[in-house]
Amino acid sequence: MNHSRSRRSVGPAAPRRAGPPSIASIIVGGPALEASLSHPTGDFPQARPSPGERGYGFEIALESTFVKLSILIALLLAPLTAIHAADVPAKRPNIIFIMADDLGYTDVACFGSKYYETPNIDRLAMQGMKLLSHHHCQNCTPTRAALMSGQYGARTGVYTVGGTDRFDWSKRPLRPVDNVTELPLNRDIIAKQLKAAGYATGMFGKWHIGQQGDYQPGKRGFDEAIVSMGQHIDFATNPKTDYPKGQYLADFLTDKAVDFITRHKDKPFFLYLPHFGVHSPHDAKADLIAKFKPKPGVGGHNNATYAAMIASVDESVGRVMKTLDDLKLADNTVLIFTSDNGGVGGYNRPGGLQRDPGTESKGKKAKGADEDGGGITDNAPLRSGKGSLYEGGTREPFIVRWPGVTTPGSSSDIPTIHVDVFPTLLEIAAAPPPRQTLDGESLAKLFRDPAAKLQRDAIYQHFPGYLGSGPGLWRTTPVSLVQIGDWKLMEFLEDGRLELYNLADDIGETKNLTKENPAKTKELHARLVAWRAEVHAPMPTKNEGDAAKSKAKGKGKKKAERTAN
Ligand SMILES: [Ca+2]
Question: Does residue 390 form part of some domain?
Fold first, then answer.
């Protein structure tokens, strides 16, 4: 790939402009005209459209001299504007969205780790753009629901994993809102819209927003889908798929991704590759574990098996990049890498977990409490980790490489969030909008110009439930938040207490500024209240002692806390 060329300010959604094909080239016909139509800027030589994408039918017609003359006559008679290249649809880029599972903000080298090794992801960042303040939900299912639907969980009802009774909230002041565990079928997912725009669509990996019937990815807009999660070795797939005994899941999914890219190299495709790595159970390939064993850890990054899991995800990214290079597709492919929620860790630092009232003053742990929350990594300098609405739980690495559009090595710290992905991909593909309201804004303009401003100024989260971490300890209690620029306000719904942080000065959320800055507190709280009203965010209600009678829409699985979200 050539990354030295200057950045252009337009992408396929705003077709590249070029001069009209010369009459001479039309008379010469054949390759000259095809070249002028297919490669208006002359720098995407591999971007050879398949016949169905050309839209004008010139190339087929040019096989006949008679037709060449007919075209010439037609062109001479037609208004000149009819042949202006601005009307020629640019070749739509392929889109690949790779997502790791539970990979923390600093779990890749280009976002800060000094222990884990991610040479391919780092190279992708060098060739593309990093979003430094990108957010997803605090755990798996709601992030995927928001990515696929373009809607906040407050609208879809999907705000966490599993049912309301997954954690024992019977001693807490509030009764959580029932969680929806399958993305409602009256939402069009992004794959359906891209398919409608002519994209081949495939997904391989963890779906997690409905495993049965019409909720499966193959029924919602993916031409092909293989779902797997739960184990990294000896894993099951849906549909059942043969694979070499002992194969590692990340490698299997990458095989499928490479095969999909290869089979669809001649038409636009959308590949969604949501890895199960680096989610627990923490299993990795022996050779990679051995590689990291002797390496000294740095800070909270010190587990060789976890490092090996990250290395496998990185290898996957590398194989996808190599496939694009080999097939000469890289320059016409938007490649995104991210994770679904924060890393599991950071709970043993101050503010990492919330305690039941009273347990802290007694100075003793409840039986079975795990002060480390099962941590295996650390999101430092961010506060807390997966399951929390502090930054450690929701801020993710996000890298996009869009050759010719993103400036190599660039970054943006504008707050962005999961619901922005849907409109972004719609714009990139010039695909039709879905039936539902979209909550986010396309980030394409940010990709073109990191100094660009988005129209909206605020992002939101709403979590009307509980996420436990053992008796007396909570990764989060019910909370809503708004972030505008560097300012983040959290409202804890049990008692209405507010926390205000300036993330530019205090990325670790250590200093609550509500007393220092009551005006900013009031301003952001008003915005949060207004947004909740706008999206009809369901609020938890007073706990009337009816925990045993609660009607969870999904199955409560207390034991699944550490392994299934
Ligand atoms: Ca996850």
Answer: yes
Q: Length of the chain, please?
A: 565
Q: 377 CA to middle of ligand 1, Å? A: 14
Q: How many CB atoms lie within 10 A of CB 401?
A: 26
Pull the structure tokens for residue 150.
Answer: 């373009």
**Does the residue 195 lie in any domain?**
yes
| Shared-domain flag, residues 80 and 193 | no
Cis geometry, peptide bond prior to residue 278 (ω within 30 degrees of 0): yes
Give me ligand 1 centre to Cα 160, in Å.
11
Distance 232 CA to ligand 1 centre (A): 14
Q: Are residues 165 and 260 in the same domain?
A: yes
What spacing in Å lies between the alpha carbon of 344 and ligand 1's midpoint? 9
Per-residue pLDDT of the chain (565 residues; tens, 9 = 90+): 433 333 333 333 333 333 333 323 322 333 332 333 233 332 222 333 333 333 323 333 334 444 444 544 544 444 443 434 444 446 899 999 999 999 999 999 999 999 999 999 999 999 999 999 999 999 999 999 999 999 999 999 999 999 888 999 999 999 999 999 999 999 999 999 999 999 999 999 999 999 999 999 999 999 999 999 999 999 999 999 999 999 999 999 999 999 999 999 999 999 999 999 999 999 999 999 999 999 999 999 999 999 999 999 999 999 999 999 999 999 999 999 999 999 999 999 999 999 887 765 444 554 544 556 779 999 999 999 999 999 999 999 999 999 999 999 999 999 999 999 999 999 999 999 999 999 999 999 999 999 999 999 999 999 999 999 988 899 999 999 999 999 999 999 999 999 999 999 999 999 999 999 999 999 999 999 999 999 999 999 999 986 545 444 344 433 333 333 3
Residues 293 and 389 in one domain: yes
Q: How far away, in angstroms, is 101 Cα from ligand 1 center?
A: 4
**Considering only CA atoms, which of 313, 378, 309 is closest in space to residue 342?**
378
pTM, entire model:
0.82
Tell me whether residue 102 is in a domain.
yes
Q: Is the residue at 68 inside a domain?
A: yes
Same domain, 179 and 244: yes
Q: Are residues 48 and 111 in the same domain?
A: no
Find the 370 Cα to ligand 1 centroid distance in Å.
20
Q: Are residues 132 and 34 in the same domain?
A: no
Domain count for the chain:
2
Distance 340 CA to ligand 1 centre (A): 5
Centre of ligand 1 from the C-alpha of residue 198, in Å: 30
Ligand 1 centre to CA of 564 (Å) is 9
DSSP state of 471: T
Residue 32: domain span: 23-87
Ligand 1 center from residue 362 Cα (angstroms): 34
In the reported structure, the alpha carbon of residue 109 is separated from the centroid of ligand 1 by a whole-number distance in angstroms of 20
What are residue 432's phi and psi, to 5 degrees?
-70, 150
Cα 293 to middle of ligand 1, angstroms? 25
DSSP-assigned states of every residue in 217-236: GGGTT-SEEEE--S-SSS--
Q: Check whether residue 332 and residue 456 sit in a common domain.
A: yes
Of 438, 461, 484, which residue constitutes the final position of a domain? 461
**What is the DSSP code string of 475-510?**
EE-SEEEEEETTEEEEEETTT--EEEEETTT-TT--
- 459: β partners: 483
| Residue 191 CA, ligand 1 centroid: distance in Å | 21
Distance 83 CA to ligand 1 centre (A): 50
